[in-house]
Design a protein that fits this description.
The complex is a heterodimer. By secondary structure, chain A is mainly alpha-helical. In chain A, 84% of the residues lie in helices and 0% in strands. Chain A has 10 helices and no strands. Chain B is mainly alpha-helical. Chain B is built from 12 helices and no strands. The chains are: A mainly alpha, B mainly alpha. At the A-B interface, α3, α4, α8 and α10 of A face α3, α4, α8, α9 and α10 of B.
Amino acid sequence: MNGFDLFAILLNPGFGQMLLDGMKMTAVVAGCSWLTGMTLAMLLLTVRLTGSWGERLVAGYVSYHSNVPTLVQLMLWYFGIASMLPVDWQGWLSEHHAEAVFAIIGLSLCQAAYFSEDLRSGLRGVPSGQTEAARALGHSYLSCMRHVLLPQAARNALPALVNHSVSLFKNSSLAMAIGVAELTHAVKEIENQSFRTFESYAIATTVYLLCSLLIMAAGALIAQRSHLAATR
Amino acid sequence: MIMDILDILDIVRDNWILLLIGQYPNGPLGGIACTLILSLLGIVLAFPLSVLLALARLSPWRLLRWPATTLVYIVRGVPLLMVILWVYFLVPLLIGHSVSGFVTMLCTLVIYEGAYLSEVVRAGIEALPRGQMEAARALGLSHLGAMRLVILPQALYNMLPSLLSQFVATIKETTLGYVINVPELTFAANQINNQLLTKPFQVFAMLALIYFVVCWALTQGAHLLDRRIARKRAGSSTVPVAQALPSCASLSAEA
């Protein structure tokens, strides 16, 4: 191979397109998993607070998802659970990016466990007077949760939530192992075709690093803003 | 449901040697043994690196602080899979001959866990009261002397539970060795799945169950250790001070 040449990949229309598609898939997988994960986490948190059975159920859920490797969870979904579905569902799914669908399901269920733990420890930091005051003002349980407790809990939990959002973004690369054509997958493909290992890895690493740093910076910005809002 | 459980038991009975030690006498060590050895070696080798990194990040010298901070941020921002690919590509280039998947994975884990553990060590050091450092310096110890004799022994003892949970994280990370054909537990399960072909759910449910049992037990151990250390510190911090310095006893009780 002749020398280090990033543009041999970036300016090659075929490779450029593969990179773009890979980044798009990474964004879709990470973004969808984040949204579903966060929604589920709030549901889990609410269930957890309803009573001892809810507590036990959610504790089990969290325990499973934090003690089983994410890759194994993805494999269980894609190879295992997919094969138990009715045949016509399987057919429909395989026409609609089954691997991406199961990657999103697996990642968001796993992420929901982490997010719900973060929110729970954030919620512990909210003084109980807040609930009492909100209920005394006539908020229902859910409304008190949504308007009074969760915003404050989210503020307390922000550093942990940002860390776990970054790790979700990084974990989206695991989807490669079940065949999702995301960034890492695209880069391996480009490496196979161009034999420019160093360049293709360097591009992917830069993209991942920049996005992660961007998420961390956004987290810091939100933390600063919400801190201002809280002290106002 | 009952049938699935029976199937899982059958699979375990037929393949327990493969799951436990891989194809060992006739091939490389694999299965759970490989997973555990890999993560144990990884964490043991990463630990000294992480202490050095943490010291560099907290050091008053910019020349040490910046490279360490950069390394930690790079590792925190890049997926483990990407690090594995880099090591897989670079290590043979650097040392001139190809290495096994096991060694590749071990190098990756040392770099990756070194950076993550250094954050744990740093948090442990920063969690100690500032007075410890100030008192040590006032007694005439140098910065490094104070770190070695006063700060690190306390910080490292306090972070034992975190170290154990980082070990659990490492066990989970070894699953990625599957991508570069390290014969660990996930790889063994995939081999079984490829032989059976018809029972993917049972095979992967069994795999998840094995990981769950191992990691859950270790996590419980970490919780237990955490409580014990908290109790011990709560007990020990007041008694010796009160005995050694009776005049300060009322002060320390207030603090």
